[in-house]
Amino acid sequence: MSTSVTDRNFAVLSTRRSANEVELTICEVEMPHADNQDDIVVEMLTAPINPSDIGTMLDQADPDTAQRADSDDRADAHGRYVARTVLHVPAAPDVDPAALGVVRRIGLEGAGRVVAAGRDSEAQALLGQVVSLMGTGTYARYVKARAQDSVPLGEETTAAQGAAALINPLTALAMVETMRREGFTALVHTAAASNLGQMLQRLCLAEGISLVNIVRRSEHIELLRSFGAKYVLDVTSPDFFEELIDALQATGATLAFDAIGGGPLAGRILLAMEQAAMRGGALLPHGPRYGTTVPKNVYLYGGLDPSPVEVDRRFGMAWSIAGWLVFPFLEEIGPERATHLKRRAVDEITTTFASGYARTIPMPDILDPDILRAISRRATGEKYLLDLTASPEYTTT
Amino acid sequence: MSTSVTDRNFAVLSTRRSANEVELTICEVEMPHADNQDDIVVEMLTAPINPSDIGTMLDQADPDTAQRADSDDRADAHGRYVARTVLHVPAAPDVDPAALGVVRRIGLEGAGRVVAAGRDSEAQALLGQVVSLMGTGTYARYVKARAQDSVPLGEETTAAQGAAALINPLTALAMVETMRREGFTALVHTAAASNLGQMLQRLCLAEGISLVNIVRRSEHIELLRSFGAKYVLDVTSPDFFEELIDALQATGATLAFDAIGGGPLAGRILLAMEQAAMRGGALLPHGPRYGTTVPKNVYLYGGLDPSPVEVDRRFGMAWSIAGWLVFPFLEEIGPERATHLKRRAVDEITTTFASGYARTIPMPDILDPDILRAISRRATGEKYLLDLTASPEYTTT
């Protein structure tokens, strides 16, 4: 069960040093071992920078305040480091003291070669293969993962193609699975021109599901139409709300997945759903004050806008706004169904679930203030890929 | 199946006349008949003025603008009327044109004597009895209701005692039922010094359920403590948030029923639940950004504050804010269980579910501008009861 790896390991770490300071470092960290029977150790090749990774890295810090802070002795309380950047957190009203000083590894997925494996046959079968994996701390030279969270990439799939084979594709698949399990028949999606949004549109077309896409820029309308999208609405259009009611009435969609989070959008979607239901003849059995009995649900799965959600409730009582996250959902549906979805994600990684990247950057560049600012914009079409193959230079004092 | 009633019928009606005008009238309306086998016709005696009735009557109008508007001919497009009051709606951005001109009957419960009944034995058995009932338009001399929505009051219960035997008591019972069905073990309640809040506290004491009461005035703390409440927090206290976390940690309550609706309170409750869970040692299996996996739920069942709900999401992803209404809940649990709850409500109407009233007013006075302003304050301890026995004077032109 021990690994044969002799190289040194480096990882990207984020630490809230105080209420107002976040520290990003690349440090030498311990080499992982396949301690459990179902563990594998993966020599990482590449990993995508997803919005959730940016959120975890920044932890409410303002990327415009990022400054390189490499010191001469190149050491901090947690060991030697290769590179260091500090950021300021502008307002931090309720920092849990227990969260201060906790070193967090970054990266939730990626692709790499399995270099060690536990005793389980499932783990052993992966030895030497290039896999796509989900885990914690994939922005590293080596990581440990569970065999069940890894799927081998086929011969014809590159590590770059397979780097983001799980989080976004599984999220799209889990959205459709949630829709079916909860008895809905069509979907609404916001920030819909994202990598994930494009996947969801391709998936919905393949499955014959009506999808109402809401985008934030008019040029994204054509982008999504080029994938075959039928309903694409620009939230900045003066006719947006009327168009939304029309699309909701046409599709019967009363379930939305919202990546924006902050502001009035989630509430506006619920209001449009209610008005579409009333136009479609839904009754008000308990009077107009209590609205229709048509269930209307918005799941907030992202936080592109971190400001508070504002819900102006004029859509009756049959509604819900709730957080939604793919990982607990996979636990809920059980390992068999989760494995089925993971395999489908990898099987269709160059078609339904293909990702595009604006740039590939070597691991140390993620601490570059200019790069931090660029990835923090989280703009559609500007997704970055990390190249994890080059060991960061390490100089001791 | 015909009734033996020869008297004339009068009812309180509310109509949105235009985007900016609401009209309240007392009109002569048709005498109801027991058309269906399970119908009963009830000669009304008394009915409570609940916040939901005030909301339906006012329909966003400002009670300070109420003006008597009885005209000489005492007639409008919908027939002769006895009394008329008009109110102004200050801001009405999205009025559904279909809602204009719709005449709505007011009142969702009350007590009265059954004077006619359909063929069903259940309906026939009620003939001549004084019942507590749920229905639409109980602010009238006569109403039709379903036998299953009526429960006979015992010999020792007056109509005034039984007037509010269903909506509030059933709501309290349904809250506890919801808690158990969804796997929660303790409750949070806001505007907790209300009639309903007092009932819920008595019910929770009887059932051994921990209840965290949140009130809006310091004098309400003693009021609830006099019922035996253990946890009563004043939202205006500077230490409110810390006290809330402590109470949530002590009780393990992660389900709240909120009558306020608008503003930041629902989100603050979710944040306090998450912080209580973390103090109690709950893990963050997907990193701090995604919070604990402890399910946290706030049901909004009222709208004492009609302003938008503001949710500052810093409590992970395992949360939900949703509308909640007792009527669909009773449908969901089925008629057998619903009947069980209704009978329990009436059985305990002078103990667990006793209501108190500041005043009893005759039906026509509900159109009095001073009365409208008084009931619109919806202040705890200022609930009114309607006396429906006196036929309004009716003068024809």
The largest sheet of chain A, given as strand count, sense and whether it forms a barrel, is: 7 strands, mixed
Mean pLDDT of chain A: 90
Helix content range of chain A: 25-40%
Q: How much of the residues of chain A is beta strand, in percent?
A: 25-35%
| Mass-distribution shape of chain A | globular
Rg from Cα of chain A = 22 Å
Whole-Å distance between the termini of chain A? 35 Å
The overall strand count of chain A is 21
Contiguous low-pLDDT stretches of chain A (5 residues minimum) are: 1-6
**Number of helical stretches of at least 4 residues of chain A:** 11
Which secondary-structure class do the elements of chain A indicate? alpha/beta
Oligomer: homodimer
Largest interface here, residues on each chain? A-B, 46 and 46 residues
Write a compact overview of the structure shown.
With 397 residues, the first copy, chain A, is of the alpha/beta class. Chain A has helices at residues 51-58, 121-124, 159-162, 167-181, 195-207, 219-225, 240-251, 265-279, 326-333, 335-347, 369-376, and strands at residues 9-18, 21-29, 39-48, 62-68, 75-76, 79-88, 103-105, 109-117, 130-134, 142-146, 150-152, 186-190, 210-215, 231-234, 255-258, 261-263, 296-300, 305-311, 319-323, 359-362, 384-387.
